[in-house]
Amino acid sequence: MKQVCTVIYDSSQFVEFFQSDDHLSLSMLLSSFMAGTKFIEIDDVTLPQCLQQHPSLIDLASFYGAIECVRFLCINDTINLSHFDKIGRTTVHYAAMNGNVQIILLLREFGFDMMHTDEEGRTPLHYVIMRNNLNAIQYLMINFIPSYDPNISQHYAHYAASVGSNFEVIMFISYFFNCVDFEQPDENHISFYEKAIDSENFDFFSFLLDHNIKQITDDKGYLPIHMAAERDLPEFIEALLEKENYKNKDYQNEDEIKDQFPEGNILNSFYESSTFDNFWGQNDLYDFNDISLVHKVDNKGCTPLHIAAQKGSFESALILIQNGADVDAIDNEERTPMHYAAIGGHLAIVELLYDVGADLQIFDVDMKTPANYAYIRGRTCCVRFFSEIGCIEDNEDIILSDYGLGHNHRRKRVSRHFYHVFARERQGIKTNKQSEDEIE
């Protein structure tokens, strides 16, 4: 029978029936429509945004989990298996949003495509992963996904990590495929570590650390410790540093064990062989003979403490300092963490760095100190703090430093006329007056 499509602009009655799964009232309402109407689309801007893509009536019923209404619509031939909404989603996609396995099973009985891909490249499995519905994930994967394809395994594992799926979901996907490479980034060069940090999934992050998954840098040169500092995740930073300390301790134990055996001993030969490296683990997180994580720099020469100071991540900054971070480290622009804290107006971090002895008089490549930047950026609280500790003597020093003269003339007095000339030029006021006795 040829299906005639009717568009409904007010779906409130249908939604009411679906929410209560009242298929009898639904039947009475449908009987009031014109004879021959077999298929209905919904165009209702009052619905949730995910339902504003012209879903069909059965799409709506599946979304709300109304299994009796779905059954009624299927039995009474008010469905269209070839119908897609405006972005290519099928009824199974809408059922997956709800995660009701019974509805998914029912739709399969009536011939719906279980793994159709919409215009955004998502199958129903993507939606149940997004909703952390483990039962629906298990059903779809066991019945419709080949467990031997490494490309599929990487795709779904990365997707689960990207959307912040819980640890149990990620682990099920990993164990189902048994070929997920957690060291391999996705097509955008985003690692599993970065996804765990972005979603603040500490359980998954700990899993990666415990299994010695290698840490790689992103396009900015960030390691996971930089990413955690940027998002102010002290728990993640502590885990990274504890892992580093533990592994360093293991390597110290390695030397102690070797020393226990005289030269020529068969066990000593084993320790000197490549087998010994395998024994201790080839797949290290990083080179432990290299510098500590707290001193690692990104593409701009910034340490994790620079990043924490820039973003105002106080707890992260505190942990980094407690673990030996250099408070006077300079980046490629010769700026210290104090520079970035002052630029951002992060007074708590400015005070923290000052309390642990940070140098306030370091000049960057533009010949500016942290106090200069606080003044230029209008960070009133920081300016007041620098003034109270005697770092800012007067406005003349700050204004001259804006012109690159603060460093070379810091200890020389400036005539009042010279000061006013620079002050007016800062405000865009031209002056033809010649300076008199500019610098004594």
What does it look like?
With about 450 residues, this protein is mainly alpha-helical. The chain has a domain at about 1-115: Serine Threonine Protein Phosphatase 5, Tetratricopeptide repeat, CATH 1.25.40.20. Helix content is about 50%, strand content about 0%. It has helices spanning about 10-20, 25-30, 55-65, 65-75, 90-100, 100-110, 125-130, 135-145, 150-160, 165-175, 190-200, 200-210, 225-230, 235-260, 265-270, 275-280, 305-310, 315-320, 335-345, 345-355, 370-375, 380-390, 395-400, 415-425, and strands at about 5-10, 35-40. The chain has a two-stranded parallel ribbon with strand order 1-2. The longest helix has 26 residues, at about 235-260. The radius of gyration is 32 Å and the shape is elongated. Residues about 260-290 and about 400-440 have low confidence and may be disordered. InterPro entries: Ankyrin_rpt (IPR002110), Ankyrin_rpt-contain_sf (IPR036770). Keywords: ANK repeat, Repeat.
